[in-house]
Design goal:
2 copies of one chain form a homodimer. Chain A is an alpha+beta fold and 139 residues long. The first copy, chain A, is 33% helix and 26% strand. Chain A is built from 5 helices and 6 strands; from the N terminus they run ααβααβββββα. β6 of chain A pairs antiparallel with β6 of chain B, so a sheet runs across the interface. The first copy, chain A, binds a DNA duplex (30 and 30 nucleotides) through residues 15-20, 36-37, 47-51, 53-55, 58, 73.
Chain lengths: 139, 139
DNA sequence: CACAAAAAGCAACAATGTTGCAAAATAGAT
DNA sequence: ATCTATTTTGCAACATTGTTGCTTTTTGTG
C-alpha cells in the first residue's frame, strides 16, 4: 500500500508529502468515491481545508483521480485506472450512486455507450451516472 | 406565456405568487438550464435568496423542473416536459453541457440508452450528460 | 547539511446554503 | 368586496463550503 502510494506520486512527479499520502491512502482503501467533505472527515483534524482542496485539484490535473458529477452539489472524486495521464482519461466507465448508502462507485467494467447527438453538436465526452441500490445494500 | 405560467401553477395546485411566476418565466424564456445563481442574477434584486431556494425545491418536488448533475458544484434545473408529475418523471433524455458558452441544454429527442449493470445492482434510473460544443457556438 | 523550490498552514474573506420567525400575500368563504 | 386561515415571503442570523495572499514549513537535490 505504502509502495503503491509512493509509486503513484513518483510517477506523476509529485513530491511525497503527508497530506498527499494520506489522501491517496483514503482513496485506495475505499471502494466508493469521496467528496471533499468525506475526505476532511476521514482525514481527521490533521489537514487544513485549503490543503485538501489543493491536493484534489492537483490530483485531478495529473489524472490520478477524476470527478463524478452529482445532483447534490457535492462533486465526488475517484481513483483513475492506470492509463490516465495528464488531461487524457481512458476511463470511460459508468458511475453508480446508491440511494440507500449514498455511496458512489465506479463500475469499471461498464463502458459508456455511444450516443448519437442531433446534427450540429460536437461531442467531447459522455458521463453516465446510474442510480439505484448497490450490491451491499441489496443483501 | 402568462397563461402558460398560470396553467402550470394551477395544475400543480400552487398559489400564484410573484416569485413563482418570475422564475417560471425565466425557465420558459431560456432554452438552457439554469442554476440557482443564474436565477438570482436574471431575476435582478427582486427576490430573496431564500425564496429562490424554496421555489426551486417546490418546483422540483412537483415535477415542474428537474435537476441536472454537474461536476462543478452548481446543479442546473430545467423544465420538465408535460407528463411529469409529482415524483414520476417520464423525461429520460440526455443533457448537454457546452464547454464554450457553459450552457446546459436538454436534448429532448435523445433518449438515455439502456445500460446493463453487473449482477446485484438494482437500477432505478440513469442520467447521461454529454459535453462538447453546442450548435450555436459551433457556428 | 545547506539551499532553492514546492507545499502546507493560517487568516481573512466571499459565496452558497439553511433555519426560525415575523410580516405580507394569497385563496376561499362569506 | 371584505375577512380569515393558510401559505409564502423576507429578514436576520448562522453554518458550510470554497477562494486568495502571504508566511512558515517541508521536500528534493546537490
Amino acid at each position: 500500500m505504502k509502495e503503491d502510494i509512493t509509486n503513484i506520486l513518483k510517477r506523476n512527479s509529485l513530491s511525497l508529502t503527508a497530506s498527499r499520502e494520506k489522501i491517496l491512502q483514503l482513496f485506495l482503501s475505499n471502494d466508493g468515491a469521496l467528496s471533499h467533505g468525506d475526505i476532511e472527515k476521514k482525514a481527521g483534524e490533521r489537514f487544513d481545508r485549503v490543503t485538501v482542496y489543493r491536493t484534489l485539484q492537483t490530483f485531478t490535473e495529473k489524472g490520478i483521480i477524476h470527478t463524478i458529477p452529482t445532483a447534490d452539489n457535492a462533486v465526488r472524486y475517484a481513483l483513475c485506472k492506470d492509463n490516465c495521464s495528464e488531461g487524457h482519461h481512458h476511463d470511460h466507465h459508468v458511475h453508480f450512486i446508491c440511494q440507500q448508502c449514498k455511496q458512489t462507485f465506479c463500475l469499471d467494467d461498464v463502458v459508456t455507450p455511444d450516443i448519437k447527438l442531433p446534427r450540429g453538436y460536437a461531442l467531447s465526452h459522455i458521463e453516465v451516472v446510474a442510480e439505484g441500490v448497490c450490491r451491499q445494500c441489496k443483501k
